[in-house]
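Researcher: I'd like a structural prediction for the single chain below. Treat it as a standalone chain; there are no partners to consider.
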Amino acid sequence: MATETIAATSSPAKRESFSSTTLARVLRYSLVRLVTLAVTVVIGIYLTILIANMGGYVDTIMRNEIRDNTTQSILANPAYRQLTPEAREKLIQDKIANEERRLGLDKPFISRSFKYLINGLTLNLGRAINMNSDSGSRQVRLILLERLPATLLLAGVADLVLFFASVYLALGLSRKYGSFFDKLIITLSPTSAAPPWFYGIFLILIFAGVFQILPFGGLVDSPPPDTSFGYAMSVLKHLILPASSIIVSSFFLSVYNWRTFFLIYSSEDYVEMARAKGLTARDIERQYILRPTLPTIITNFALLIIAMWTGFTITETVFLWPGLGRTLFQAIGLYDTPVIVGSTIIYAYLLGITVFILDFVYALVDPRVKVGDNNQ
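Model: Treating it as a single chain, here is the predicted structure.
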């Protein structure tokens, strides 16, 4: 009786001690993980600033453009033709100095790079140099937000269809190893070496050029339909070709990768034992194949979701799709550093947050994983 009383009174204490230890381990791991990710994001953003500015070379390009534009505008202005050459030259130099001061080009690039870093970390994306939003604003935030819906529509439809179709078909092929369709997927997987825009050009030539049943590009007809239903149907019609090019370019390789991944788990000893017990193929897939692979599937799906932010740079350009990918392509061509850095900053934050959350998701879906346990 005394032994039972001691065990009963000590059990809550042990549970409380275990809970405190677990909580301390999780908090310690979370703090270390957050610091590590923060340092990684800071380094990545600063490197992006250096690369986007070409180590300061973009400043030289901008100074030359300011000098050329200012000189041409003053020389072409009839109001300044009566000035002496010395006065005209002084006016040109003053205007150049004012414009460089307005853009911050009068300060060394290394000092401005740290200012850009602080602004980027605080999501103060600033103003674009050459690009405008549809409303005429040069705020980078507005430029990116205007292009975001088009990219989410294209990338969301294409990537989600590609992901779920690949996983579903690959799971079926893993049950029929060596079948005709299995060999067909293996044979066609090298076709994924071509990028989406490559297939996009052929789809445009066939369905827009030859058969003339789908539009060449753009988001909606011009002029756009008046009704909401007509507008939606127009967008859907314009979405078919770019989404199809993305799906076709990666479909066979994605199915092949997932099929190989599922085959590896299908050959495990515990799967063979489950088959020997007489479990159905569906139960084996759900309990012994999909469940152990769930962390990998979740990781791929999460990274797929945040990759939508970057868009498809060349594919959107080929189809004149007004998304973030085409915006980034234009920003690179115009040396518009704020737009390039702003897009990269948001992607870096999304990636860091996703990686941090995934660590805890793994512990929820897989009992073998313990957050903060160095042995796992």
